[in-house]
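job 3f2a | input accepted
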Amino acid sequence: MDYRRYSKEQLILMTEKLKSLSCQLLDDKAHNTQLDFSWTCNLGFWYWNVQTKALIFNPLKATNLGYTKEEIPKNSTHLFFTDLLHPDDYPNVMEAMRNHLNGKASAYDVEYRIQTKNGDYKWYYDLGKITKFDKEGNPLFLAGIVFDVTQKKEMRLDLKLKNKILDELSRLDGLTKVKNIRELFEHLKAAIRRGLVLGEPLSVAMIDLDSFINIYETKGDLYGDAVLIDVSQIMESKVLDINLLGQYSGEEYMIIFPKTSRGVALCISERIRQAVDPQYPESDICINIRSGVDGFLFATLKMDASKYQYVSETFQ
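job 3f2a | predicted structure (316 res):
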């Protein structure tokens, strides 16, 4: 470093800063030797002068991000790393530091994403603590340690994603991939509660593929499964986003129509019949649909491959 461009006063101030920080580092080193941080991906200790913002850290913290030692600023401050924080994590990191400096948290403890030299992000975990205060009780120095937890974090996120997928699969029928009976009942109970509280209409359609067992007996299991999957996809494509289609049993389906009157529910049911019926004109598929209105009134719609008969019934 070329010191000739500094004034005498600036050099004295720099010397005092280095002297103060060196004394603190020596004091911290005595404490650090008693600690065992044998975790993998340990990137070493860091030391921060709160008042001057000077930061001393193990070069691994920067080289792990793709920087060479020559690219690390000679007089580093915390800005060298905070400028690399992921925008979504920046507020949390700042808040964690403020909480510790203000005495609201016993330690500076935070996970965050930090940008590498090539633009990717890694996950770091910082754990630090104030090591010295001034006479007024203001923090002077912080010492901490940093770890690269990218692999652990990605494994955790991958596990979370897999659990989410498994949870979603547990709500679906294994063959048709529409909602299963457990999910149907959960939605139905919620819809009933909502209807009772808000006074909203609720319709429910029960769809029964009568004599569907004949397809399995005459065409075989593979063909029968394929037809069941196809019919399920057709029905699901005809219901609205607000509705829920699910498999009640092997050849029985239920459609829940929240905030839907009998008329609208019957129109959607008719659309389903018109979509399914032409697909298998040679088969003897008979579909029965019972649509409940407001939880009290029900209408029965019988659909057959050869003729259509509409029968309305009311149940109290």
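job 3f2a | The longest helix spans residues 8-32.
job 3f2a | closed
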